[in-house]
């Protein structure tokens, strides 16, 4: 298998976030890809996919000619359990996992064809509010299907817990001398701590997803739409909607109570727990943005979710 150039976004982010460990991963990629090519009898079927931040992803063909995707991840706490979720989904609303390499976390995945992202798909009247509702309905339907009780993991990585996210936020936001207390989100951190306490006792636990957004859903032939790139957590159902609602509120065109109610109904979750998770994700975003424009947008998103 000929090794393709690592996308610039992947190289940049892995080095920025992981330093020397990221460089070691990049240096070892050609050998890793070569080993997996031999292990799984693959041949390259095009250049690596662009974009992304933590993965080298390239189209391949299997020995029988079937189209597939080889995904080699920089393994961290957020994405290590991706193969666990895909194994348990078994192709029900998400791309199938064909093979998994425990040594590296690499995966051989079903290739979704044509693979157009829901976020940028042109429906009739794609710029209208009606088209936006259609995208939201598709996303909610898929993420509602994918939430399920966690079965025996059978050698796959354990899922991190959503309550661990709450503990990290408590530690960061509760530090009165910490960086978060000096940033643009400082005025919202006491609210965030209240929300962490409110969400600390989930009503149920299953496979949730912390990275729910419209760019992680692509068109396919086996099903009209499939989820890719899940970031699974052991979490309640409302956890899924936290990031989805936050991103939809941030980007529009819909907002406020009507959006909150639509996402809650679409996911089949409690409105107030959904709002709490979305507010936490929005406040977390507010603590990280830097430009005046981004701060203003993040503050408006937090305010809209509070008032919804």
UniProtKB/TrEMBL annotation:
<keyword id="KW-0418">Kinase</keyword>
<protein>
    <submittedName>
        <fullName>Kinase</fullName>
        <ecNumber>2.7.1.72</ecNumber>
    </submittedName>
</protein>
<dbReference type="Pfam" id="PF04655">
    <property type="entry name" value="APH_6_hur"/>
</dbReference>
<keyword id="KW-0808">Transferase</keyword>
<dbReference type="GO" id="GO:0050300">
    <property type="term" value="F:aminoglycoside 6-kinase activity"/>
</dbReference>
<dbReference type="GO" id="GO:0019748">
    <property type="term" value="P:secondary metabolic process"/>
</dbReference>
<dbReference type="InterPro" id="IPR006748">
    <property type="entry name" value="NH2Glyco/OHUrea_AB-resist_kin"/>
</dbReference>
<dbReference type="InterPro" id="IPR011009">
    <property type="entry name" value="Kinase-like_dom_sf"/>
</dbReference>
């Amino acid at each position: 298998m000929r090794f393709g150039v690592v996308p610039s976004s992947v190289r940049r982010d892995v080095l920025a976030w992981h330093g020397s460990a990221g460089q070691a991963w990049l240096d070892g990629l050609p050998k890793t890809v070569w080993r997996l090519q031999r292990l799984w009898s693959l041949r390259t079927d095009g250049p690596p996919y662009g974009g992304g931040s933590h993965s080298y992803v390239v189209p391949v063909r299997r020995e029988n000619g079937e189209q597939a995707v080889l995904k080699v991840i920089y393994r961290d706490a957020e994405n290590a359990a991706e193969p666990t979720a895909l194994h348990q989904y078994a192709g029900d609303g998400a791309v199938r996992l064909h093979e998994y390499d425990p040594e590296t976390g690499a995966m051989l995945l079903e290739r979704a064809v044509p693979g157009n992202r829901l976020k940028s798909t042109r429906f009739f009247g794609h710029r209208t509010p009606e088209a936006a509702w259609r995208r939201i309905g598709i996303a909610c339907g898929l993420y509602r299907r994918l939430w399920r009780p966690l079965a025996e993991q059978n050698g796959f990585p354990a899922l991190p817990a959503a309550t661990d996210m709450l503990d990290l936020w408590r530690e960061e936001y509760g530090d009165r001398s910490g960086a978060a207390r000096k940033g643009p989100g400082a005025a919202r951190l006491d609210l965030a701590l209240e929300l962490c306490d409110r969400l600390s006792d989930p009503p149920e636990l299953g496979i949730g997803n912390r990275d729910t957004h419209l760019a992680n859903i692509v068109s396919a032939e086996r099903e009209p739409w499939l989820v890719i790139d899940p970031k699974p957590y052991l979490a309640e159902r409302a956890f899924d909607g936290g990031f989805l609602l936050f991103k939809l509120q941030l980007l529009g065109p819909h907002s406020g109570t009507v959006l909150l109610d639509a996402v809650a109904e679409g996911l089949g979750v409690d409105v107030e727990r959904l709002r709490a998770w979305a507010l936490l994700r929005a406040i977390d975003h507010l603590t990280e943005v830097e430009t005046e424009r981004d701060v203003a947008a993040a503050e408006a998103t937090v305010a809209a979710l509070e008032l919804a």
